[in-house]
Amino acid sequence: MMIRTITLIGAGNLATQTGKALKKAGLEIRQVYSRTEQSARELADLLTTTFTHKTEEIDLSADLVLVAVKDDAIEEVLACLDCRQTLLAHTAGSVPMQLLEKHTNRFGVFYPLQTFSKKRDVDFSEIPICLEANSAETLNELKELAFRISGHVQEIDSAKRKILHLAAVFSCNFVNHFYYLGDQLLEQHQLNFDLLKPLIRETAGKVMELRPFDAQTGPAKRFDETIINNHLSLLGNQPELAEIYNFVSGSIFQAHKNS
């Protein structure tokens, strides 16, 4: 069966961008559910569809019910539903597919590997979509759907998807927090974060062509003690930052000391 209609459970960053991509590809978003009426209404307006904030009103007649809520809310929502005749898929990176097993006979995972924000559109054609399903038939249904919005579709089981999600936290969430720390340092000294943006672009661009190991530069890789100690002295009144600087510098040095 080809998936043509979707009920979207969730109205956050991922649900918003995935819903927009699916609608653009010609899918009918039959309904949006969110625990808060305002969030449900806003996304439904964006997707030109109906909405609800009551679990008992969730439309389970769609070809696919796509669960795009916080990891710890998946079971909470599904426990309120009778999904036995429903094709269910969740979008979580670290939640095992088997969580869905007690709710339906047809289930899988539809995990777009990207960082999403409601108000920043993304090119879904470039986003890897990681799939898993409890049967070959369900996998083919999800695969056909995924290829309608992305050119990068791959079957990845729950164990490997957990590792992928962990790597994504290091490569995205932690890196972005470092941008925040850099921004805070600059702001303390009346400097603008825009000064770092060409450096950030080049750093990200290099790892499109080089392995991250080969792209590494900086005083920690060279173990330039003079510069490292100067930096630590500048952080003398910010011991938490100094601890982070020391730990990360040590990790970089250990990775490259024999190279």
From TrEMBL:
Domain called Pyrroline-5-carboxylate reductase catalytic N-terminal: residue spans: 5-81
Domain DUF2520: 127-250
UniProt-listed InterPro entries: 6-PGluconate_DH-like_C_sf (IPR008927), DUF2520 (IPR018931), NAD(P)-bd_dom_sf (IPR036291), P5C_Rdtase_cat_N (IPR028939), TM1727-like_C_sf (IPR037108)
Entry protein name: DUF2520 domain-containing protein
Source species: Gaoshiqia sediminis
